[in-house]
User: What shape does this take?
Amino acid sequence: MPSDAANRLIEAVLLAIREHGYAGTSMQNLLRDTGVSSSSMYHFFPGGKEELVASAVRSAGLTAAEQIADVLDRHELTEAIAVIFDAAAAEMAAADFTLGCPIGVPATEAPADSVAIQEAVAEVFTAWAAAYTKALRASGFGSEQAAMLGRFIVAAYEGSVTLARATRTVQPYHDAKAIVTTQLAR
Assistant: This one.
């Protein structure tokens, strides 16, 4: 189980990435803001920033996968999609369009040769798609169609985050929600 210092670093790096991007995330600022020494940081994350980001992506992303599955279990499928996209839109608006996705940002900004981050991002996006795929299968979609739609929902969500942040409007979330739920109603 991670220590309090490791947890503080994970939470701080997730926020920093969402606000400033991968390249704009300064390890010196993280250490200063969390009160964690560099020796402690390297004790928990010997690979430095890359390992810390990969751990944070995996932790936050797999927690989100559980939350997605929970919403899908508690609601009818199209209602669950609406709940997820509406919550994301509300979070974006509340943050005044300043926060990117803690998974999508490293997916696009981390160094191309960062196997650790690539693997963490792939694991998370696969888990998200699997949660949707399982719910789609339970709603009567065939295996291949459910898998394709599961991946599409993740792509629609990630695209909504990027477009909303860039255009400073939550309309991309509403558009994606409408398109996805229309596809599910067929």
Q: What stands out?
A: The CA atoms of residues 136 and 145 lie 9 Å apart. The chain is about 80% helix and 0% strand.
